[in-house]
Amino acid sequence: MASRSPSQRNAHWFRSTVVYEVVPRSFRDANGDGVGDLAGVTEKLDYLADLGIGAIWLLPFYRSPWRDEGYDIADHYTVDPSLGTVADLDRLVHEAHARSIRVLGDLVTNHVSLEHPWFQEARRDRASPYRSWFLWSDTAKEFSRSRVIFRDFERANWTWDDVAGQYYFHRFYAFQPDLNYDSPEVHAEMLRVARFWLGHGLDGYRCDAVPYLYKREGTRCQSLPEVHRFFRELRAMMDAEFPGSVLVAEANQSVPETVPYFGDGHEFQMVMHFPLMPNLFLAWGEGDPRRVRHVLRATLPTPNGSAWAYFLRNHDEVTLEQTSDDEREMFLWLYGRDDRTVINGGIRRRLAPMLDGDDASVLFLTALVLSLPGTPFLYYGDEIGMGDRPDIADRDGVRTPMQWTSGPSGGFSTSTPDRLVRPPVIDPKYAPDARNVADQASRPGSLLSQVRRLIAWRKAHPAEAVGDDFSRSNGEGPGVLAFSRNGGSTRTLHIYNFSRDAASGSLRLPRALEPAVLEPGPGEASWTLAEGRLSYRIQGRSFAWFAASTGPK
Ligand code: NOJ
Asked: Of 419, 444, 492, whose CA–CA distance to 34 is shortest?
C-alpha cells in the first residue's frame, strides 16, 4: 500500500534536500544471505535520518539477471527476489516517509534485459506484437553516427541475433536491447511502469540514459526533440497524478545539450551536473577554481524552480566524456595513474582513494557540492571515506559492501566475506577495520561527524537562489572561489581556497542586511566585519562557511 507522500505537501522539497544514492545490493543485508536487500535499507533509515539525508535514490530493484547492477530489467513490475518483495518496498517507503525521507527510484526507459519476455517473444517471431518494440536491421548500417558508450566492452551498437535472424540495436551492453520509442505501445508501457511505482509511494525517479530513447538517421541519436517531448509528457502525467513527485535526468552531455533538459520548468526538476563534475576534480588537482567558476557561470541560474543535481561520485566510473583531450590527459595524470582503474575513457575510483584517503580533501569537495545552488547527491560510503577494489571487473569495484562496523564483512552481513554479493575492501587503509560507521559516529572529529555537521548547518540556513555572482568582483584572490547565497533574511557566504597558499580577500554584504552580524559555520578562516564587508584570511586547501543576517538596529 502506498503511504501518502510528504512530497504532496511541498512541491519544491527537492531544492533544500540532500539526496543519498543507495546501491541496494551493497548497502545492508538483513536476511544474512550475503546480498543487500530492501529490508536492509529500511534498517538503516535512522542512520540516514541522523545524517540529515532528505531523500534516497535507490538503484534498480526490479527483477534482473544482474549483469549490469539491475540496469538490465527482466520484469519492471516486481522486486527482484534477491532484494525482497513488493511488500518490503512498501515498508521501506512507509518508514522513510515517517522520517521525512523521500524515496526516488531509477526509471530505466532506454533498454531492457535480453532475458525480458518482451525481447524473448520479439526475437522468436517476426509476427509477434513485440517485434516492433525493438529496433532490427538486416545490414547493421543504420544510425552509424550513434557513438558506442561502453567502448571497452562493445564494438558496435548492432549485434546479430541468430534467433531473430536480424541485428538488434543496443546503446549499451549487447545484453541490453534498446526499446523502440516509435512504437506507441512502448511509449504507453513506460508511462505505466512509472505510474506503477509512484502508486507504491515513490517520490520520483532518477531517469537512466535519458538522451538516447529516439534514433533518427543522420543524427548522433541523442537529445532529439522527441526525447524532450517524451519526458515532458511523463512530467505532465506526474504533475497531474502524483503532485510533488520529481524527475532527475541522467544526461551525460555538454552544457548546451544538458541545460535544455530543464525544459523551461516543464521537463526535469533536476539534471545531473555532468559538465561540472570532472571540473571539480580538475580544479582541486590544479589548485585553481577557474574552470569551476566558468562552468557555473554558464549554467546558473536554472529555470523556474528547478535545480542542478551536484555529485562527486556515483556507482559508475568518473566519466570524462565532457572534457577536452587536454583536460582528459590532465585528469588521468592526476587521478588515473593506476591503469587498472581506467575504463571507457574514465576512471572507476571512489572519492576517498581519488584524494589519497585525505579526509580534509574529501570534506572540502563535499562542502563545495553541499553549498552550491542546487541539490547535492552523495554516494553511499563516501561520507566515511570508503575505498574501492580496482581488481574487480567493470564498475563493481566502487560498489563494495557498505562498512557499518569493523570486522571482515564490515557489519554489512552476517555472512562471511567470501559469500558476499561482491568482495569487501581489503586494503588496510580503507578496510572496515580502518573506516566504518560505528567508529566514526562516536568520534566528533571524524569525517562522518564533519559531513553530518555540514548537512545540519545547510539545513539550518536554507538558501534559495544564487546571491552574488561567481566573479572576482567578490574579492576572491587567485585560487579562491567565493560566493554568497540568498536565504531571504540571511545570506550564506562560502569561501573555498583551492590553492596551497594562504589567501586574503573580502566579500561585500548586501546593504539590506546592515547592520549585519556574522555567524561562522563549518570550516575555518580568520575574519573581520567592517563597513558592510567581510574580510577574510584563509589557509591553503581550506574552506569556510558563514551566515550573515541583520543585527539589532
Ligand atoms: C547509466 C547507469 O548509471 C549505468 O550504471 C548503466 O550501466 C547504464 N546507464 C546503462 O543502463
From this structure: 419
Query: Does ligand 1 lie within 6 Å of residue 212's CB atom?
Result: no
Q: What predicted TM-score, i.e. pTM, was given to this entire model? A: 0.97
pLDDT in tens, 368-391: 999 999 999 999 999 999 999 999
**Ligand 1 near 316 CB (within 6 A):** yes
Among candidate residues 474, 107, 54, the one with its CA nearest the CA of residue 297 = 474
Q: What is the pLDDT of residues 387-419, one digit of tens each?
A: 999 999 999 999 999 999 999 999 999 999 999
In the reported structure, the alpha carbon of residue 208 is separated from the centroid of ligand 1 by a whole-number distance in angstroms of 7
Separation of CA 33 and ligand 1 centre (Å): 26
> Would you say 396 and 66 are in contact if contact means Cβ atoms under 8 Å apart?
no
Whether 195 contacts 237, CB under 8 Å: yes
What's the DSSP call for residue 318? B
Q: DSSP class of residue 427? A: -
Given 29, 37, 72, 208, the catalytic residue = 208
Contact 19, 104 (CB under 8 A): yes
Nearest in space to 380 (alpha carbons), one of 451, 450, 285, 439: 451
**Angle between helix 277-286 and 325-335 (nearest 10):** 60
Q: Ligand 1 centroid vs 231 CA: distance in angstroms?
A: 18
For residue 539, give the C-alpha cell.
589557509
Say yes or no: CB of residue 197 within 6 Å of ligand 1.
no
Give the integer Cα–Cα distance in Å for 272 and 248. Answer: 7
Residues 6+ apart with CB under 8 A from 489: 549, 550
Compute the distance between CA of residue 157 and CA of residue 174 in angstroms, rounded to an integer.
8
Round to whole Å and give the CA distance between 104 and 97.
12
More confident residue, 107 or 553: 107
396 lines ligand 1 (CB under 6 A): no
CB neighbours of 443 closer than 8 A, spacing ≥ 6? 449
SS3 197: helix
Whether ligand 1 lies within 6 angstroms of the CB of 377 is answered as no
Tell me, yes or no, if 208 is annotated catalytic: yes
Ligand 1 atom with the smallest distance to the CA of 173 is 10
> How is residue 387 annotated by DSSP?
-
Percent of the chain with pLDDT over 70: 96
**Looking at residue 448, what is its pLDDT?**
98
What does the pLDDT average to over 225-252?
98
**Segment 223-248 mean pLDDT:** 98
Options 37, 250, 382, 476, the catalytic residue:
250
**Residue 209 in contact with ligand 1 by CB distance below 6 A:** yes
Tell me how far apart the alpha carbons of residues 290 and 268 are, in angstroms, rounded to a whole number.
28
Q: Is 257 a catalytic residue?
A: no
C-alpha cell recorded at residue 77: 513490475
Expressed in angstroms and rounded, the spacing between residue 443 Cα and the centre of ligand 1 is: 36
Element (H, E) at 91: helix 86-98
Instruction: Give the single-character DSSP code of 15.
Output: G
How do residues 474-510 score in pLDDT, each as one tens digit?
556 679 999 888 877 888 999 999 999 999 988 888 7
Grid cell for residue 284:
582541486
